Structure formats: C-alpha cells, structure tokens
Batch of 2 targets.
Target 1
Amino acid sequence: MDKVIVTGGAGFIGSHTCVELMAAGMAPVIVDDLRNSEERVLGGLEKITGKKPVIHRIDCTDQAALDRVFAAEKPGSVIHFAADKAVGESVADPLKYYHNNVGSLATLLRVMHRHRVNDIVFSSSCTVYGDSKDLPVTEASASGQAASPYGYTKVVCEQMLRDVSAADPHLRAVMLRYFNPIGAHPSGQIGELPIGVPNNLVPFITQTAAGIREKLTVHGDDYPTRDGSCIRDYIHVVDLAKAHVAALRWLSGRKAPVCEVFNLGTGQGNTVLEAVRTFEEVNGVKVPYVIGPRRPGDVVAMYADTTKSREVLGWKTELTLADALRDAWHWQQALGKG
Ligand code: UD1
C-alpha cells in the first residue's frame, strides 16, 4: 500500500485527511509531536477507520529524527500540514512562525531529497492573496502581500517550493490554498480542538452555543457587504480532506518537475452574520452575539474561484455551509464543556 507521510496528521485538517487517505486505499504515516492536538484524535481515527493510526512523535524541524522516519517507513509521498497558524500569536512572536513553518518545510525537503521521495502536497492559505480586490480570487490573482507573519510564512514556503522545484528536476509539488476550513467529521469522533479562547469564528460559535463563552463578538458590521459583516468562503473539512487525495493522485500521474497551486474553497462567499444565522437554524440553538469593532488585519471579502481545482484535479465540494455547521455542533456536543 502506498505510504504517505502526513506531517501534522493529528491536527484538524490532517486528521480528516488521514481518514480520506485510508478510504482511498493509501496508508497514512502521521508525523506529529502533538503539541497542538490531543491523544483523543488518535482514538477518534481508530474508531472511524478501525485501524490504529501509525504515528511518529517528532518535531518536523528535527532533521535526524525525520531522516529515521523516512528510512524506516519508505514513503512514496508527503503531505505537509505541520505548522503554527494563530495569526495574532505570529504578530507577537514572528520568529516562532518563521522557525517552525519555514524551517520545517526546508528540513522536510532536504530529507525527501535524500530519500528520493519526490511528491509533496503543501498546505497553503488564501492569506497569500492579502486584501485582494479581484473576487473571486483565481490562482493567477496577485499574491505575496499577506496581512501577518503567519501569512508571510505561507508566502515564503510557496516560494521555497517554486525555487526547489526549479532546481530539482524530480520534485513534484502541489500547493493547496485553503479558504476557511470548518466543520468536523460527521461521526463526531474528530474535529477542531482550539487551545484556549478560539480565534476562529466557528469554534467560537459552537463554544458560545454550548455556554462555554457568554457571547460571540461579530468583528464589525460596517463593511461594504450585504449585511456589513465580512465575507469568507467556508469549506467543510471533509471536502477539503478529499482534495488532498485528488492532489496526490494527480501528482502521481505527472512528469516532473511540477509545481502547481490550487484554490480549495466552495466558490461561495458568506457573511459572518449569515454563518451565525445558518448555525442557529440548522441546529435549533441560539448564539448570543454583539457587534464589536473591526478586527485588525481582517479583509472585507475573500472567496475562491474553483475552476482550476475542478478542471485539473477533478475535485469539487459536495457539502454545504449548513452541513459543516451541523457537524461542528455535533462535534462540540461530543466534546461537552471540556
Ligand atoms: C484566518 C487567516 C487565515 C488562516 C485562518 C486559520 C488571515 C487574513 N486569515 O482566517 O489565513 O488560515 O485564520 O487560522 O490571516 N470573526 C468574528 N468573531 C470571532 C471570530 C471571527 O466576527 O470571534 C469573523 C472575522 O472577523 C472574519 C470571520 O469571522 O470576518 C472569519 O474569521 P476567522 O475564522 O478567524 O478566519 P479568517 O480570519 O478568515
């Protein structure tokens, strides 16, 4: 069976991708030191797939340790999720972000080269488009102006892959620009596990509905949108996970060198207030909220043109915003107040 190294495989998107890889007949090998996730994810994966996940608990900037994993597992390809992702923290501690996010990709590419592993799928973000006026954004829209050090680590990692791919005739790389991943596995066994007070909208909504938070603050209702709140392209994490399987399959059929970028979104923009209302309707629970000031760094609107991923990867989303918000609530209920 084709072994795939999945760095950050115990994380939110990584764990859902492991499920889809197994469903597609591939064998994920998780590389994750669990610094941003919990043991329970591994139990959840076992319940869903019926198999104990294979995991190596190492830091992806540790070249010697990565080297040992590659020597032992002999993988055919890599999906690189492991990264820090808190925008505010990246402003306060940028070196942590450059060290972990940029450092881990550089280390991984070295190790891949040594072991002649040529296929990599990289987790990028729509943050590389910055405050784009070009909506919906296409892969050809201007990129490179991020709003935070976190965003710049994605810009730098994309450039690193382009540079390495230009120098290495064997490398085959896909860079996936995620829009706003939300939701959880419909089984309620795995989902997002925010540490402390959530920064992202949907975990804040579910924790408010569960009574863990008193109320949601909607960051601004004076944007030039249909109801004044920001617009984002919310994509169900299961749809997103399936795109990684499509990307690996597409890569394996290509002749090197390949370095392609794809948007992963639904193509639909929804406002913050629409997300709150949809959550309330689909789950029959109230989300108390107040309108607060704009959050620094937020862009007015961001949603994807998905033509390229549809036409080239043969992938498109199948689940709706309502599906994602229902699954997110189901997961929150499974977590309880803890
Ligand atoms: C941000 C990053 C994105 C990153 C993602 C994952 C930017 C511009 N975007 O996405 O690159 O991949 O986080 O961490 O750096 N909101 C509220 N109240 C809340 C929380 C959020 O109103 O309590 C609003 C925000 O103002 C925004 C929307 O909800 O309009 C989505 O916010 P969030 O879930 O944090 O994601 P992004 O900021 O879009």
Target 2
Amino acid sequence: MSASPEKPMLTGSRPDGALPAHVAIIMDGNGRWAARRGLPRFEGHRRGMEALRATVRTAGDLGIRYLTIYGFSAENWSRPAAEVAELMSLLRHFVRRDLAELHRNNVRVRIIGTREGLAPDVVGLLAEAESLTRNNTALTLVVAFNYGGRQEIVRAARSLAAEVAAGRLTLDAIDSDALSRHLDTAEIPDPDLVIRTSGEQRLSNFLLWQAAYAEFVFTPVLWPDFDRQAFEEALAEFQRRERRFGGLSSATG
Ligand code: IPE
Ligand code: IPE
Ligand code: MG
C-alpha cells in the first residue's frame, strides 16, 4: 500500500470516500512480536497495550464513531494460566490507568462478551468503565473481552426462546432484527471494516453475526507495531472498496 501519512484519507476511489463508522480490530501478533526480539510474550502484550492507546486516540481524532477491539477471546482460556493471568492484569491496568482519560475525551466504553469466569474485581472494573462513561457522546469504544461470537449467538437464541416460553414473544416475531437486539452488541451498528493484524486471515470467533457485510483488511503488521500510519492505510484500503450488499455495482448497474 502506498498511502502517505500526510494524505492517506481521501486518496481512495470510493465514490463517497467515506470513513467507516465502525471499525473492529483483531489485535493479533503480540507473542510473535516479542519472540522476534527474544522477549517474553508478556512484553508483547504490554507493548500491544501501547498500540491500543494510540489506536483509540487516532480513531477519536479521525471522528470514527465506533471502535471495537478484541481483547480476550472465549478460547484464550486455553493458554497457560500464567499468560491468562497476565492478560487479566493488563486489562485491570488499562481500566485503572486509562479510564479517567477516556472519560475526559468523551469516550463511551461498552463491554461485550460474558462476565462469567472473570474475577469479581475485573467484573467490577468493567462495570465501572461502562457506568462512568455511559453518557459520553464521542467515540464508542467496544471492548470484546471474554468474547466469542458463537457463544454470543447461543445466548441470544436462549433469551429469545425464554421470551417465547414465557408467552412474551411469538415465533413469527423472531427475525434477524430480533436476534440482533438480543446480542451483546444491541444498539451498536454492524462493523463496516474489520482489521486483523499479524497476517492471520481468520475471524477466530469474532463478531460472526455482525460482520456479515463487513470489509476485511488483513495486514502483516504485528499488533505492537500497529501505528497511525498502519491504521490510515487500512482505512484508505477500505475507501477503495466498493460495497454492494448483494446488489449491483454502481458502475455496471
Ligand atoms: C494477540 O496476540 C493478543 C491476544 C490474543 C490476547 P497473541 O498473543 O495472539 O500473539 P501471537 O498470535 O501469539 O503472536
Ligand atoms: C484472536 O487471536 C483473539 C484476540 C485477538 C483477542 P488468537 O491469537 O487467540 O487467535 P488464533 O488462536 O490465532 O485463531
Ligand atoms: Mg494470536
């Protein structure tokens, strides 16, 4: 990609050249970043946290409305206990250190995923982050933590079934809007752009339902190296895409 840091935003060729309203990021490659330097994996996660701070700032500067970040997957529990503990500590650290600044910057924090299995103090911090920032109106930062797309869809299906069983909902009323409203992301628009760093090209159980018509950008950059330029290049790539949503191209149609 050739976008320069000075003029990356509007050099794309999409007719409206609009920025995505909602960007979702699979922050991957912390371990490999550390391994390449002969450092412990934890150091990669720590540096990844710095990249996250910078990315939230950039998203805010650019006026992106929603930024969702994949912080810990439902499957990440299968890592060694020591690494899981480090990831939990980093989350604690992030909330304690950054919440005040996020709030000052008018950022609204939303958490998706389940609180089940998390330590009580982590659950408390997540609740505090959401409640302190709930009326903020700039960027919405959606943190996917202890999150799995399939698990989220199962929870939504259960809660719909419970409403039917209780006689509050008819079977006919179950449609895709109803299911969307029962997901953790209720009221959050679907992502327009999903970015995955580190060269892996898979979803790893991230936003399975919501990403139905998202554009995907895969970059080889490892997450700790993901800087403003890498972010702007991904956005410029998005701007060059033509989204058709099953319809016809504006050029041929
Ligand atoms: C992403 O980096 C962070 C989390 C999954 C929490 P990884 O830890 O997956 O790094 P790699 O993929 O091993 O390089
Ligand atoms: C996805 O990365 C989860 C997060 C970024 C939090 P993983 O590194 O866990 O994904 P896989 O195992 O390579 O698919
Ligand atoms: Mg990984």
